[in-house]
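Quick illustration, no need to memorize.
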Amino acid sequence: MTPFPRRTITNPSVHSQSAIMDCKLSSDSKTAHCTFNDLSQFDQEKTGKLDPVGLLTVIRQAVESGWSMHDTFGLAASISKDANLFLIANCLDIYPLFYSNFSTQMPAQCDVSVVYVGRTSIVHEVSFKIKESGEVLATSLALAVFVNLESRRPRPWPESFTNAYIEKTTVQKPSIHVQFARLPPSDCKLYCHKTVVSSGDIDMNNHVGNPTYIKYCMDCATFGARDKAYTLIKGDLADYPITCITYFFFNESLLHDELMVTSWEDRAKPFKLYFSIRTEEKDIMQCTFTFNVRHVGSNL
């Protein structure tokens, strides 16, 4: 299996321009099919490959394109100048074909559909695939919350929206991220990395964008692997394909915030790393990376 290339992890803020070439609705208006003809803008080192942070950025663009399309998911009329959707949790599963069969010059497609609607929340299911063959390279469950932009608090959906998706309000909410203790066991070996939020990290909602947090975690893991902070994950992080990323947000972080990224490994499954990001005053988010077991085993 080919790992993601040895390169600087994509800075999603640098590549904020949408790469979507076309977005169409299914005949029942329940699924958006977003096509990307070329994703080379996410390939900073010109290797022809996409890293997991770039993949999350592409998926975010597909979901946001679904929101902005006229009558897509019935969300266009619900999003206004004083309210918007904030992505707060995600479970991304990355399949081997992503690393071995895909290049950024190949046309790709994201299929985005609604699988759950709560009082203030919505869950999208996303599949990322090679457009020509239909091979699925990754899947994602993304949880978003309808937020009042002034109070920064969740607000209920308009009745017209919940009525349009009444069948999605009665299904069981998918499990996206299993929250872990915000502080690790006292006997865990920790590896910490500090970072300061720069203007390039801020998105259209005036806070740090989701893929940027994953970049912070990738930076922490990269330094930790080089410093031999983990049992299995050592040396060059690019040697270890990531198979799953999950995350959940507790709070926002803003420009100039000083963030502490703390990482530690699962003692029973050392191919899994946990991350906690916080300021001195509050918890911001938590995240997990799971690496390919077979590939990790070959590096022991």
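Helices lie at 52-68, 96-100, 159-164, 210-226, 293-297.
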